[in-house]
From TrEMBL:
Protein name per UniProt: Fatty acyl-CoA reductase
Organism: Riccia sorocarpa
A molecular-function term among this protein's GO annotations: alcohol-forming long-chain fatty acyl-CoA reductase activity
Enzyme class: oxidoreductase
Source organism phylogeny: Eukaryota, Viridiplantae, Streptophyta, Embryophyta, Marchantiophyta
Domain Thioester reductase (TE): 35-343
UniProt-listed Pfam families: NAD_binding_4
GO biological process: one example: lipid metabolic process
Superkingdom as given in the UniProt entry: Eukaryota
Keyword set, alphabetical order: Lipid biosynthesis, Lipid metabolism, NADP, Oxidoreductase
Entry's EC annotation: 1.2.1.84
Amino acid sequence: MSSLSYRAASEVSAERGNDTPLEIRKFLKDKSILITGATGFLGKILVEKILRVQPDIKQLYLLVQPRGGLSPEQRVQSQILDIELFEVLRSKLGKEFEQFTKKKITVVGGNVRLPDLGISSGQAGAITPDLDCIMHLAANTRFDERFDVSLRDNTLGSASMMEFAKTCPKLKLFLHVSTAYVNAHKKGSIIEKPFKMGQTMAEILARETDESRLSDGEIPRLDINFEKELAENARDSGYNIDKEMVELGRRRAKLFGWQNVYTFTKAMGGMLLFENRGHIPLAIVRPSSVLCSYKEPFPGWVEGFKLYDPIAYPFGLGQFPGFPMLENSVLDMVPVDMVVNTILAVVTKHYGREQQDTFVYHSSSGSMNPLFGKDYGEAVYKHFKAYPMMDNNGNDILVERFRCFEDADEFKRSVRSRLLSAALVRLRSSKGSNSDTDKVRQQEYAKNAENLRRQICQDEQETFGYSVYGVDWINFLAEVHLPGLRRHVLKKHRIQGLKQEHSQTPSRL
């Protein structure tokens, strides 16, 4: 495959205007950064990228909790440094890899759920004077999580991180990763601003459609302290059953205009960060649905099912003929390495700047290079036609063209209930159900991230650029994402004889 190319450097330079070019490598040099969520999909790519492109980073502090019988140090070793994602860096450094990562990474045992993040006073005293920046990626992304758990992780955990940030004397930026789907059911252009305390999507939508609902008191006011007390009281009074706590979260989210407990609690977390930031500069990145890596450190790296993967998987097994979606529905997706590049550009732009405003950047594709439902179906069909899965007898499973069902009932009638139920469970546990995503398909995000991309210096556009304008979504999904899913997630269905080399790149952007 031929090498990847971004927009012409002269075009980028001409569009940049009078803004100072961003030099991301120069910014990263000698910085000490605390990263939460480093063991997650996005966090691993971020850690790898920083270490690979700037060996003169001073220190990466990774806040990691013990889990599954593993200490924080053991988790960083086995779940980050030892995985295939780091093979490019390992090959580059050779025998120096272990020494380099040991020198550059400090594992901090802690948890955003705990008072003072669960960090010992001695370690906190060593870390806080050294930190230049915090990148807060940790989140509970389950759409069907218990209300009390999601609130604790996504809302109160973010507030705890900001309180910790205030103890760092030279900290010059707090970068928070949220989700584009906090915009919920809103259609049209999305203004890239943080939520103010108590602001709800129900209120925002009412102002656009029927303001009388506000004067009539029909739209409830959000009080985060009340939500916290509600979750605590429900748990203490017998709501400890998972099903009841999950249902409580769904009801509270719907009441205030969000689709699910994940987007609801992430929105509340953003409110607390904005309200309590004090003197700390705050920037927010909101990705849409995150796919596998596009080119770095190599194409196709992925962990777990992403938003639409539970649709593709049963289609490849011959269990689904398609899925309920309109052919012209916009499925907003973005490769994970482009999200990482957006994060690094945002941090470089806003680090150390005195600012009253909080800047919000959406990492998305729908308003610039949309993927339509019919094209998604074509990509899935193209992949499984070229690389069929096999049944239990070793025979190829042949598929017919993917159907976009306008009638959900017709789709349900075409699928055995057992198979449909299993697929919906996978869909909800990965990133939500189709009914959740229906409401966000017509959104058009403002272009802060695109304007920022044009400010990246000419020499770094290839390494840190994130343009989605020329992505051939059909080929990317069919030849990179789905093969990556089968290689790294559905390992028993990996494609025999197809190698995804660590040096290969998609055929075109």
